[in-house]
Amino acid sequence: MNWNALAAIATAVAAVAAAAGFLATVRQIKAAARQDRTEWEDELTREYRQIVRQLPLSARLNGQMQDGDIEKFLSIFLDYFDLSNQQVFLRKIGRVSRDTWKEWRLGIKGALQAGPFAAAWNIIKQRNPDLFAELKALEATGFDADPAGWKRLSR
């Protein structure tokens, strides 16, 4: 028996086993990171639900609201716009997945283009033109852009 050949085979087997272990560890780390991101994205979705749950049913169904009612609930609408702006920003810096962004973008687009949310959005933009730069930039694209490709907006 050639001990040198046996040692070489054992070394090769150990190297393959180490590489396989390394790859398995990398896969586990990536899977854990995806799970963490999903849980974090879900938390932002829960935050959205908590905000809009405070609005009257007519607002949530994109129905009609009197101007006085919009004013009455303006702070809640403001919380929604702040969250939406944060969502755009988080996608811009790569913290939100493409699939989640597609869903969020459609929701933001639908809210800001019609009904009480649109009316409140117009009020907020008029009163505070310096707020929500990311959300305004998304609106300027017709809500079709992916902020992941944007450069940092100047403040």
Describe the secondary structure blueprint for this structure.
Blueprint: H1 3-52, H2 57-60, H3 67-72, H4 74-92, H5 98-113, H6 115-127, H7 133-140
Helix pairs in contact: 1-4, 4-5, 4-6, 4-7
Any descriptors?
0% strand, 155 residues, elongated, 75% helix, mainly alpha
Structure, described:
This protein has helices spanning 3-52, 57-60, 67-72, 74-92, 98-113, 115-127, 133-140. It has 155 residues and is an all-alpha fold. It has one domain. The longest helix is centred in the first third of the chain and has 50 residues, at 3-52. The chain starts with a helix and ends in a 15-residue tail after the last helix.
Approximately how much helix is present in the residues? over 70%
Largest sheet: none
Beta-sheet strand percentage? under 5%
Radius of gyration: 25 Å
| Shape assignment | elongated
Q: Based on helices, strands and strand pairing, what is the structural class?
A: mainly alpha
Head-to-tail CA distance between termini: 74 Å
Tally of strands = 0
Low-confidence parts lasting 5 or more residues at pLDDT below 50?
Answer: none
In round numbers, the mean pLDDT is: 86
What is the overall number of helices? 7
What's the domain count? 1
Order of helices and strands: HHHHHHH
